Batch of 2 targets.
Target 1
Amino acid sequence: MLDKSRIEALRNAPVAPALHLIDGVARPASDGGIMEVLSPLDGKPLTTMARGTAADAHAAIAAARRAFEDGCWSGLAPAARKAVLLRWATLIERDALELAVLGVRNNGTEIGMALKAEPLSAAATIRYYAEATDKIYGEIAPTGDDVLGLVHRAPVGVVGAIVPWNFPLMIGTWKLGPALAAGNTVVLKPAETASLTLLRLAELALEAGMPPGVFNVVLGEGAVVGEAMSLSPEIDVIVFTGSGGVGRRLLENAARSNLKRVYLELGGKSPNIVFADAPSLDEAVKVSANGIFRNAGQVCVAGSRLLVERSIHDAFVEKLAAFSATMKVGDPLDPASAAGAVNSLRQLEQNLRFVDEARAQGRKVVLGGRRILEETGGYFMEPTIITGVGPDDPIAQREVFGPVLAVIPFDTEEEVLRIANGTDYGLAAAVWTGSLSRAHRMVRAIRAGVVHVNTYGGSDLTVPLGGVKQSGNGHDKSLHAFDKYLDLKTAWIKL
Ligand code: NAD
């Protein structure tokens, strides 16, 4: 349960200026630069943070390299690493509400979702990978009698993690958990508009007993700090969640430097497909609305394209608009809010531009489409539903990353498959149908990392998350995530 009085007590708590955490020590930027951190709740300054330079990134990378080479972490018995990680998870839970409120003030996610999806999910993720630490075995190869072939699994070295602003702790720990459990060291670059909680997480790691230099945080702009990381010959792997444009840049920089491996979790334009034979249209309405409008649509797997069978299209859209209109958008620290603030003014303006463009093309905005609560100074936007959308419209092809739903009617299974697969993305999808055979056919035919059936967006740590096509490569979550952080090494021994 959310403790409203504690939330209110934390609402205006002063936030200390944020410094880098490099080699276990808080440090300002090497040239003393700072940047203002604005809260999306009221558009006012929340605190300042170090504006990192390339020199700061190099200092963090050097600390991570030294910590990796000296074996203070990779050389520990797995059970000893596990003990530190488990302590860390407990500390994150201890401070969960403080972390959640700080995160909301920094990035605007509604508190109910923030508490669950951020600190509590982060603690669960760290615990999941901690428990796996001493359960990863190598292999003995089935060779002839005169040799022994061993397959070791060795940490890759220094991991550079670059993460976005929508769920910094959840997405951050999807990388940190398996990377650190596997014995690597990490340099993390949080997003400019959601750095504060990840920094706090790194302080808690030190408190849990993680040696200095194992987990470093460099604050600042992606184009400076992230760029320096992606060009560094001392980083072995870059793991990234964010936009396709930056993903391309990371691949280019890997090619230009040391051919480091680059794993990308990128955006989506995920189709949510409702057939007329869905078991419950009311359930489909409720879940579809939540699947696009929670966290103001700033969810990578958001169901941003609603494909509805024509025979139920009008009735479904009417119900959806009626339900969505009841979703309270506003103060994200009020537990009654179903959606909080858009993360930044820039993102809000971008969302509104997409709506204006669709309107100018003659598409119909049947709900929302405007900024609201402007008098608060915060960045709030109504849940927005656009109908009459063509499959090739910009609003059906490009990721908005906001509370904007494009609705497209269809007539047949073949047609809807063509539309569903007809974008550059392939992250998530859903199919609502009462036919088991159709559900399985669709799961097979839709090109996406996850296909939900008769639900949208549910998941837990036991299953991988990753995209196909231009939604990325590699996977977060589940034991498969270790593949990014462990190298296979063969020993071929003549007997
Ligand atoms: P973004 O790509 O602008 O930024 C992501 C991170 O990259 C930030 O930390 C940023 O500082 C950094 N960055 C920016 N320029 C860089 C550069 N030149 N070199 C290195 N790093 C750089 O994305 P965003 O706006 O923060 O997040 C929104 C995007 O993330 C959306 O496209 C969304 O779909 C995607 N996303 C994907 C997933 C997933 O799991 N697939 C999850 C969440 C968000």
Target 2
Amino acid sequence: MTKLMIIYTGGTVGMIYDEKNRSLRPISFGEIRDHLPELYRLGYHFFVHPFKPPIDSSNMHPDRWVELVEIIEQHYHYYDGFVILHGSDTMAFTASALSFMLENLSKPVVLTGSQLPIGQIRTDAKENIITALEIAATRINGHAAVPEVCIYFDFQLFRGNRTKKYNAEKFEAFYSMNYPPLAEAGITIKYHQPFILPPPTEPIRFHKKLDPHVSVLKIFPGITPETVDAILNTPHSRAIILETFGSGNAPTAAWFIRSLEKAIKKGKIILNITQCDGGSVELGRYETSEKLLEIGVVSGYDMTFEAAITKTMFLLGQDLSTEEIICLLQRPLRGELTLPESTNSKAVHSYWTNSPLS
Ligand code: ASP
């Protein structure tokens, strides 16, 4: 019998509307189960580990990611797959963080949640939970169909570290602009094999060290030297995610470049990702990014903000030199970025151009 572990962290998926207080309040997994009798018909063996109390995902924290990794580690060999019920607001951060912390994953870790609470008639929670469980249980040619950390939401399965919550209202709350869905659920669940990571050849490694000393500098026309300097000089911050325009462009003003250069000389890492949801940083393509390249700003290519933040926390937490961190930031570790000239880049490109959705 397929054995699955459900980790219930909280989120809308496990909330009901409290008439008295006129707000959503969290419920226990027992109450979720009462709303989901279909669970028993799936024919799997379940073990449920609830967060006590369940949390709104706005309160998610790197310490809780470590806790999730510890829970998975303790049960890894016993279960065929893991489903994490999680609030949608920070689900993409958790999925990204776990993807880096679980190296050589051979079992599915599927995060899901919902936009409407499970107690509501039109809820999307039931479909999301049931299909996430089915995906976590599916094996193809003797291997887990999706040996990855992924997000299942509204009939689509995405690689976790490629996903973004982009809509607070639609059932289709997530998208993955730079990487095709790993599977789509209709009458059957169709897996897009070429885009799913192959099963690992090395044993799993559980990483439990993260360093959250990362800052974010999101530029905008008119940003002042005071703001830039305050962020670049945040005490204890070891890396800065620089959110730039378009394909990695930023103001060419001398004061701006000088500030970045000073921070780099002090040993800080500056990682350039684009403010656009789709596309990649291409340092040197325009004059407005040439200087960044010259002073040692690092390209984050097509990484999401969520992947950039969590990958940086992960690498800072390992025992690595600044040079090693810079090198690894620019390489795909868990499929979180596509290098422009890679074979993968061609496959992704042809998916979008042939897709009926494009
Ligand atoms: N605030 C909720 C959370 O992220 C929203 C949701 O679950 O959709 O926990």
